[in-house]
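new request in #modeling-help
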Amino acid sequence: MERPVQNFAYTLLKQNGQARLGRIDTPRGAIRTPAFMPVGTVGTVKALYPEQVREAGADIILGNTYHLMLRPGAERIARLGGLHRFMRWEGPILTDSGGFQVMSLATIRKITEEGAQFQSHIDGSRHMLSPERSIEIQCLLGSDIQMQFDECIELPAERREVERAMELSLRWAERSKRAFDGQVATGGATKGQALFAIVQGGIDRELRQRSARALVAMDFPGYAVGGLAVGEGHDAMIATLEETLPSLPADRPRYLMGVGTPLDLIESVRRGIDMFDCVMPTRNGRHGTAFTWSGRVNLHNARHAEDLSPLDPVSTCPAARDYSRAYLHHLVKSGEYLGAMILSWVNTVFYQDLMAAMRGAIAEERFDDWAAETAARLAGPG
Amino acid sequence: MERPVQNFAYTLLKQNGQARLGRIDTPRGAIRTPAFMPVGTVGTVKALYPEQVREAGADIILGNTYHLMLRPGAERIARLGGLHRFMRWEGPILTDSGGFQVMSLATIRKITEEGAQFQSHIDGSRHMLSPERSIEIQCLLGSDIQMQFDECIELPAERREVERAMELSLRWAERSKRAFDGQVATGGATKGQALFAIVQGGIDRELRQRSARALVAMDFPGYAVGGLAVGEGHDAMIATLEETLPSLPADRPRYLMGVGTPLDLIESVRRGIDMFDCVMPTRNGRHGTAFTWSGRVNLHNARHAEDLSPLDPVSTCPAARDYSRAYLHHLVKSGEYLGAMILSWVNTVFYQDLMAAMRGAIAEERFDDWAAETAARLAGPG
C-alpha cells in the first residue's frame, strides 16, 4: 500500500490559458483541482448522507467554525475525536474562520482590534472570536485546511471602510499564522495541516493588490480571495479576480470563497481559481431548484406537473434520471423531505461533474472552447 | 422466469397458537405476513428513498387516498401512469379509503348517507367522498389492496353513536363492493386487485361481532379491524381483537389499521393479525426518537451528547451502527435533515426486522417464548 503524503503540497499539473489543473496532497487524501467543496455547515452536508457526498466525487468538504463552535462546541467535538470522526467524513475538511458568519448571522457584534464580540443566533449567548480563538477552534475540530480570521464587509462600502477592514485582516492574518505555528509547535496541529490567508479589499484594485502582496510576503501555503459574492455582481467579481490573481504565487492553491453559480465557477477557473465552496447546490435543492446540463429547473413551476420526463437524462446522478419531473414537482409542492433530498443530491453531483468536466477540458487544453459550449448549454430552458 | 400469480390469494402457512405465518400473493409480488406496511402518505415514505424502504424488507406500502386526491389529484396520478410508477414503488400498494383522514384532518365535515363532505386542510377547497368516489380514486391510483369507505369515530363515544357509525359503514361496505365489482367489470380494476372490508364497532363486543358477521356474509378477500388505536388504550384494543377475530374466516388476511407500538404489534400478531400500518416509525424518527432492540431512545436527551456508542449495534440498518449517538443528538438538536433521514431509516428497518423475527418465531413454533424475551428486551433503557 502506498503511504499517504504526510505534508500539505500543491502541484500544478497543467495550465491552459490561466486555467489550472492541479492536485493538493494532504495526509487525508488528495484534492483534485479545480475543486468544489460541498458545505457541511453544522457537520452535515444538508439532506445528504456522507456516502452520497463522497460518491458524487467530492474530495473535500467545508465545515463552519461559527456554527460548530456554538453547537455542539469545538471542545466537545475534540473530546469526541474530531470533526472527521464526528460526521463520518474521512477526507480532508476545510474550515472557515467564523468571521463571515459573525457578520452575517450573529447579532450585537462589536469589532475591535482584539476580535469580534457577538451573540449566538441560536440562544443569544455571548461569544468572542479572535484570530487566536478561531485557530484554536479549527485545531480542535481537526481541520485540514484552516482559514485566517478576517473581517468581511458587505459591498458596496466606502473605500475608507474597505481599507480599514483589509488592514485589520492583514494584522489578523499575522496573528492567525502565529497562533497556527504555535499549535504546530505544541501538537495542536500538524505540518500536514495548512493555514490559508484571505485577500481582502472589496472591488478596489489597489487595495486587493496591497492585501495580496502583504499576505504573500507572510508566505502562506494557500491564498483565498474573500469578500466577493457579497453584492458586487458577477462582472465586478471577475474583474477583481483578474486584478488580484497575478499578485498570487503560481505554486500555491487559490480559493474563491462562497462562490457561486456554474457560470461564476467557469469564469473564475478561467482566471486561475483552484477551489470553491458555496451553499448554492444544497440550498437551491432544498428550495426546489435543480441544476441540470440544460439549465436551471424550478420544480415549483406548474409546467412540470404532468411532465413524465426525467430531471436530467445526462446527469450521472441516478435520481436525476429515475424520478419524473411530475413527481419532483409534487414532492416540492408538498414540502416533502424526499424532494429536498433528491434535489440536493442531484445538485451536488452536478457541481462535482462540472468541476470534473473543467479538469478534463484543461487537461485536453480546450478550456475556452469547452467553456463556450457549456455556457450555451447551461443557458438553456432547463 | 416464474410467471407472477395473477390473482389475489392468501395462504396460511403455519399457525402457532393464534399467531399466523402466511403469504399474500398479488400480481405485483408476494407479501410475507405478518407484514408491516410503511406509510407513504403523499406518495413518499417520509425522509426515505424508495430503495431504502424496499431494502428494509417491506413487501408492501400504504398510500393515503385523502392526501393523494387533494394533491396531486387521483386523475392526475392516473394520467401519469398510476401511483406505483409515480413514486417508483414496484411492489404492492394498499390504499386506505380516505374516511379516517376526513375525520382527523379535514374541516367542516358533513356526514350523510351519501358520504362525507369536507374542506381540504391544504387550501380549503370543497370535496366529497362517497364509497363510489373512494373506490374510483383507489382504482385511479392503481391500488393493489383497496379499502372500503367507512366512518371511523373517536373513542370514547356513546354506544348509540358507535352503533350508528358501524351500521353506516356496513351499508358503505356494500356500496364499496358494488363499486369495486363495477370497476372490475369495466376495466378500472382487475381481479388481481382486492377490496378489503373494515370491521367497526368501537370496543363493544356485540357491535364488533355484528359488524364482522355482516361483512363476512358479503365475502371480502380480506378484513381489516378499524377504529382502534383512537384513544381506547392498549388493553382495550387487545381485548377487542380477542372478541372480534374469531368471527373472521381463517382463510382471509386480517389487517389492524393504524397500529402501532412494537408491543402492540407483538400482542396483535399473537391474537391472529396479519397486517399493520402505522406512521410511528417515520414520525418518531422525524421527532428524534429511535426504536432499538434495547428499547426506545430519545435522541434529544442530553445524556447522548458525548456518547460515542452507536444507536443500536445489533440493528441490520447500517446507520444504526455507523453513527454515534453524540452525532445523532447533535443532528436532532440542530433540526438537520440528516437526523430525520437516519432515524426514519433506522426505525423503518427496525419495524421490518421485528416482523421478520415474528415470522421466524411462528415458523419455529415458539412465538410465546420469543414474545416474552422480546418484550423484556424492548422494555430496556434504549
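bot summary: Chain B touches chain A at residues 42-44, 46-49, 71-72, 76, 79-81, 86-88, 286, 305-306, 308, 322-324, 326-327, 329-331, 333-334, 336-338, 340-341 (CB under 8 Å).
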